Amino acid sequence: MNKNIVLLLTGTVNPNNMIMTELQDIEVRKNEYISALRFWLKYTDIPIIFIENSNTDISTHFIDEVMGGRLEMITFDGNNYDRQLGKGYGELLCLEYAYSFSKFINQCDFIFKVTGRYKVLNFKIFFETYLAEPTINIMADFKWNLSFVDSRFFGFSKVFIYDYLINYKNVINDSEGIYFEHALSKAVLNYIANGHIYRPFVTLPRIEGYSGSTGAKYKSNYFHWLRYKYKYYIKYKSFGLGNLPWI
Fold it and tell me: What's the pLDDT tens digit per position in 119-128?
């Protein structure tokens, strides 16, 4: 098991009437987290951290994996802030808390972050990209002329959280149209400007799951992925200048 690379899954089992969050059903959300965790445990062999911010413990479903040192489950009370800030603010709180308290993160060099209810069906491609070039500091998918980074899935050296991303925590306010993805974009651009190595995604992540914001199912089928494969390859070869539309 490669302990230098970890997978960080963020979660909020109980959204507690969070704004702009269509999926509020606690049982549905819990089952989706459990399903995603089982997927990641089966199809990867790297350490996994599940960080949950509504004080809802689901570790009883994964006793063997936790005891065996493959999975770290962290739950904290971090979802009682102003609802107007939105779930993206809570997402950053999860990353901040994980950085401070995760034993796995303390021992690693690079983190792949995934929203906890999602499965990235072609994760191996991104994992192997990093293995082939371990000097990479950030892997992310810019949208909308560099103003937005897809927060569902990205990779980064662990110093990025505390030295860069946390500095933008207080700009996030969903009710004012300033989302976590905007803060993430600013942090990534600052990180790159300071000399850290960036690589765009070589292909479109095949994300399976349902949007927490809208409840819509993401298109993860092979033909949808194939449709955008070459656009992403061009983006990768041109170092992801961010001038492609939302894809």
Answer: 999 999 999 9
